Task: structure prediction
Amino acid sequence: MSADPAFVDEDASSGSGEDVSMLDGHTKRQSATQNSGGRRKRSRKATGDAIVEAMLEIAAASKMRAAALTKNEERFSISKCIKVLDEMQDVNQRVYFFALDLFENPNARETFISLKSERRLTWLQGKFSTSSSSTVRES
Result:
């Protein structure tokens, strides 16, 4: 069997190679040999290990991002907005039902939850009157 000139098929535990610092702070022994030109080449196993490690890091980062997005979605969920709305005083029925429609918009939900409690009703009433006046103009 002829060897691929780009790679040297060598076991990583053979003792030859160099220590490489990884992003996570660990040191990994990288298998390499010198060719006639004095350059080092990675073995197939070392290259494969590096690819697998990079893929695992990407998968872990993706899982962390998905968890953060889920947590953010729960924080600004429609049910959370309705719970806060139900706890508010002096919300008339028309503004209440307008708010339920408004909560279909994720940006509106985030704004509503992020506002201080004493400003939420004023914000909802402003949105309601803006919506009501534009509806009257369209008729």
In short: The two ends are 83 Å apart (CA to CA). The chain has a mean pLDDT of 78. The helical segments are 44-75, 78-87, 93-102, 106-114, 117-138.
